[in-house]
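Why do we care about 3D structure at all? Because function follows from shape, and shape follows, mostly, from sequence. That is the central idea of this module. The next example makes it concrete: a single protein chain, its amino acid sequence, and then its structure expressed as tokens.
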Amino acid sequence: MNERDRLARGQTATAKELHRMRRAPAVVVASAAGFAGIVAMHSGSSPSILSGTGPSTPVSSSPATTGPSTIPTGPRAGAATTALGTSEQYGYGVLAVKVTVRGGRITEVSTAKLQTAEQYSQTLAQQVIPLLRNEVLSAQSAHINGISGATYTSEAYAYSVQSALDVLGVK
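And the structure:
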């Protein structure tokens, strides 16, 4: 006869069963505390430029960031102007973007610099960067949705775009 059948017939629980029953509330409380800790840690995370949260100015991820530069592409009013964003060092390399604006609208975003430590990171960046470019062109700002699985690359891209937009005077 197993334990469940014996308990169903009204027989008393053994010492082992009582120990398991006493332990259950402690396990539930510990699980709830762990879950609450994880939720608190994630909700108090550092601000991000992705999804429109966090500061509106670029935040450098390391001291290895170089300053942005502007390349005017035409002397007349309404002409396209281009700026090179900061070189952002992220978890897997360094990247910088070049942003072109005409009439207050972002018309082109290209990768000016991409250096990665590993081949896998290079492959991932090459897949993700066109998606990020489309996000910037669609949003007309650096406040974009990041790409799942490429969070560091997404943040570095957005920060570099924002620094170029700051140089160009685009909000």
